[in-house]
Amino acid sequence: MLTVLPRRLLGAIPVLIVLVLAVFTLQKVAPVDPVAALVGAKASPEVYEAARHQLGLDQSLPLQFWHYLTHAVKGDLGQSSVTRTPVLSDLTQFLPVTLELLFVALIFTVIIGFFMGLATAQGWRGSGVLRVMMVSGASVPVFLACLLGMLVFYRWLNILPVTDQTSFVDAPTGPTHFLLIDSLLAGRPEVFFDDLYHLVLPAFCLALTPAAAVGRVLRSSLEATQRADHTRTARAKGLGEKRILIVHSLRNSVGPVFALIGLQLAVMVGNCILVELIFARPGIGLYISRAIDKADFNAIAGVTLAVGLLYVLTNIAVDFMQSIADPRVAL
User: Fold this and answer.
1) C-alpha–C-alpha distance, residues 260 and 254, integer Å
2) Range of 134's domain?
3) How many domains, the chain?
4) Which SS3 state, helix, strand or coil, does residue 41 take?
5) Is residue 221 part of a domain?
6) Which of 76, 154, 155, 275 could form a disulfide with 71 if both were Cys (CB 3.0 to 4.6 A apart)?
7) CA pair distance 305, 5, nearest whole angstrom
């Protein structure tokens, strides 16, 4: 189990290098002139050449890639042509908002998915309705779930907000830029609960499709585990079905679920941008939409690298949890 983490961390290094290479290649083939974006299209030839030399674009491609890689490792992702500030500084402001949404959505995914999987695998009363809900939830596009959620919980019931991150105009902005954490550090629990209140609907809409997938995979895995020899032995010893399900079957069935959660996270990150735009949350969805609109490639590349790093680290964490649940994975 302890050998899994170092191996996965070493294996992540070439993956991240290939990701940087892909972003660098896209920057070179994209029809965007980074020099013109920095100094303006009407800059004089002298100013243009000076900026080109400053950016290192007059060097060979291998040398340019080496400089890009070393700067990326140091966190230097260039300057945004929209905000005129370093991309890393923008990410520290916008990314925590997205990570909060992903974290709450992941909690919803685990709770709803495990509940559906356990209920349908045991054949609880109403499990047939839950099976229909799992199939329906897996086929509902995220934008439709958001629109239906806004219509039901805001327009008709008026119980959940649908815009912004909080209702407090003087909410804390530091030191971590995670409002859930900063509000507690500032001793303002009302801001903490208000942020959670604003997170419920977008996180629930974001979690619907992954939760349905988790429920279906967990149900299939539990049904296969309950037919295994060790489960039949537990029944022969007179153990109850609930104890067999929780103690003997669940741990041996969560391996495929952890693997699926790692894959679903990539889907959630992509959908998160759309959800943030629909609910007007100031996360990387808002940031990258402005960057795409203004052809700000430094910002686009920075978001791409940040999301790629997040995905790699999450899959490492998933592999580690799999090794805890099933020590055979470490072999």
Assistant:
1) 10
2) 89-294
3) 2
4) coil
5) yes
6) 76
7) 22
Q: How far apart are CA 172 and CA 238, in angstroms?
A: 56
CA-to-CA distance for 133 and 283, rounded, in angstroms? 30
DSSP one-letter code for 328:
G
Sign of CA dihedral 320, 272, 155, 189: positive
In this structure, what token pair is assigned to residue 112?
Answer: 């709803």
Chain center to CA of 331: 29
The secondary structure of residue 2, as a DSSP letter, is T
CB count in 10 Å sphere of residue 52: 17
User: Does residue 175 have a cis bond before it (omega within 30 degrees)?
Assistant: yes
Query: Of the residues 47, 74, 101, which one is the last residue of a structural domain?
Result: 74
pLDDT tens, position by position, 312-322: 888 887 777 77
- CA separation for the pair 218, 253 (Å, rounded): 7
Residues 69 and 166 in one domain: no
CA distance between the termini of the chain: 9
Give me the residue label for tokens 């013109």: 36
What pairs with residue 86 in β-bridges?
79
Full-model pTM:
0.84
Structure tokens at 179: 């409002």
Burial of 73 by CB count in 10 Å (0-12 exposed, 13-18 middle, 19+ buried)?
exposed
pLDDT tens digits for 69-126? Answer: 888 888 888 888 778 888 888 899 899 999 999 999 999 998 988 888 888 777 667 6
**Is 315 among the domain residues?**
no
Q: Where are the alpha helices (DSSP H) in 153-188?
A: 179-185
Phi and psi at residue 30, to the nearest 5°:
-70, 140
What are the residues whose beta carbons fall under 8 Å from the beta carbon of 31, sequence distance 6 or more?
A: none
Please report the pLDDT score of residue 196 as a whole number: 92
In one-letter notation, the amino acid at residue 170 is D
The answer for residues whose C-beta is within 8 angstroms of residue 153's C-beta and 6 or more apart is: 159, 160, 162, 201
Q: Is the separation of the CB atoms in 222 and 251 below 8 Å?
A: no
Please classify residue 13 by burial: count the beta carbons closer than 10 Å to its beta carbon, then call 0-12 exposed, 13-18 middle and 19+ buried: exposed
